Write a sequence for this structure.
């Protein structure tokens, strides 16, 4: 809104600087261009508003993903602690299994030794012989009790051995299940984190796309604002130039002069995939003057992100309108609406705006200036060298 108000103030100031006779065909064309541009500006502003909403949406979604990622990272940290505890528990279980395995192996050796001893001594017949060799009832009773205890001890020994074997299998299975579960949980966590990171990357890519499109649209909008003001300024300048010619007693001019000394480093025509609508003149001198190529009225003296310090002049020569443009000046010495004479100082050659070295970019248009540069011509067709 401030940009629109700024434009309105500039236009109002320009309108107040001179009288307004009947509108010429040129002014009518400029006015139509300006009105059409105004519609384009409105559409572009609406596009930018839509992009702002999309940007806010992606930012909100990205913030939500960041929060979700933070929660997931905390879960992963908690899971890591659980895994470390589980690893300690698994290590303890492994020690128990090793101890139990040792006891089982030791007990198996004892059982094998016991069975070999029984085999060598006639097996269970040995216990029967002990009972029948008893001298009396008391000895018989004692022997029977002893044999019963031995057999019970063997039975308990075998039961304990069987229980340990089953416990070993259970512990080994429990350990295996615990490891599998831990690995599964860890893989799920890492998979979820990877999915979140992928979503975040996609949202970031979309956000960057919107950023880029928005910046491009804003740049285009600024160009439109610049063109709009240039067109409005041009309407006023043409009025002033017509008045200057009407009341001037000077001899009519019929030729342009070279606006600066130096070497032509780039000519008019296609360059880098687009029209280079003028010529570039370079000079290494410290203070290379840039002068008006013909008498006229300054349409606008301003700073442009593209042209840097720039001067636009309208000229009326032999009842024809011409426009000249002088870009990348170090500084400008003229003001908007000011009349200038051929050869009058406009500023000094510089390297401002979108420039790759000290030079003057000079354009001539057969008619009024427009954004498309559709009336531009090769300056060398008119300039007297």
């Amino acid at each position: 809104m401030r940009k629109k108000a700024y434009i309105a103030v500039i236009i109002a100031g320009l309108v107040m600087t001179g009288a307004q006779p009947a509108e010429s065909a040129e002014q009518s064309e400029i006015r139509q261009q300006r009105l059409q541009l105004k519609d384009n500006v409105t559409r572009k502003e609406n596009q930018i508003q839509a992009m702002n909403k999309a940007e806010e949406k992606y930012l909100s979604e990205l913030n939500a993903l960041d929060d979700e990622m933070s929660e997931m990272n905390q879960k992963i940290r908690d899971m890591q602690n659980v895994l470390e505890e589980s690893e300690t528990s698994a290590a303890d279980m492994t020690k128990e299994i090793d101890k139990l395995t040792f006891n089982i192996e030791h007990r198996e050796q004892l059982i094998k030794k016991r069975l070999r001893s029984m085999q060598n001594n006639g097996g269970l017949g040995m216990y029967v012989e002990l009972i029948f060799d008893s001298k009396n009832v008391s000895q018989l009773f004692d022997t029977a009790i002893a044999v019963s205890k031995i057999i019970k001890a063997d039975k308990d020994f075998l039961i304990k051995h069987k229980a340990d074997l089953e416990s070993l299998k259970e512990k080994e299975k429990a350990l295996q299940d615990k490891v599998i579960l831990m690995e599964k949980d860890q893989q799920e966590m890492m998979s979820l984190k990877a999915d979140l990171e992928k979503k975040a990357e996609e949202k970031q890519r979309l956000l960057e796309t919107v950023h880029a499109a928005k910046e491009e649209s804003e740049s285009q909008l600024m160009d439109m604002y610049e063109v709009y003001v240039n067109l409005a300024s041009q309407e006023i300048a043409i009025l002033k130039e017509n008045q200057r010619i009407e009341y001037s007693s000077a001899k009519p001019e019929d030729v342009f002069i070279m606006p600066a000394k130096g070497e032509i480093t780039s000519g008019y025509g296609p360059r880098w995939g687009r029209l280079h609508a003028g010529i570039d003149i370079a000079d290494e001198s410290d203070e290379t003057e840039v002068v008006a190529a013909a008498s006229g009225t300054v349409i606008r003296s301003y700073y442009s992100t593209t042209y840097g310090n720039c001067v636009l002049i309208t000229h009326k020569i032999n009842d024809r309108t011409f426009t000249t443009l002088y870009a990348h000046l170090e500084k400008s010495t003229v003001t908007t609406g000011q009349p200038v004479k051929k050869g009058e100082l406009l500023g000094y050659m510089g390297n401002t705006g979108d420039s790759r070295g000290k030079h003057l970019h000079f354009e001539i248009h057969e008619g009024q200036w427009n954004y498309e540069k559709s009336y531009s011509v090769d300056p060398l067709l008119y300039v007297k060298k």
Notes: The domain at 251-385 is CATH 2.70.70.10 (Glucose Permease (Domain IIA)). Confidence is low (pLDDT under 50) at residues 5-20. The two ends are 47 Å apart (CA to CA). Helices lie at 2-15, 25-120, 125-132, 137-247.
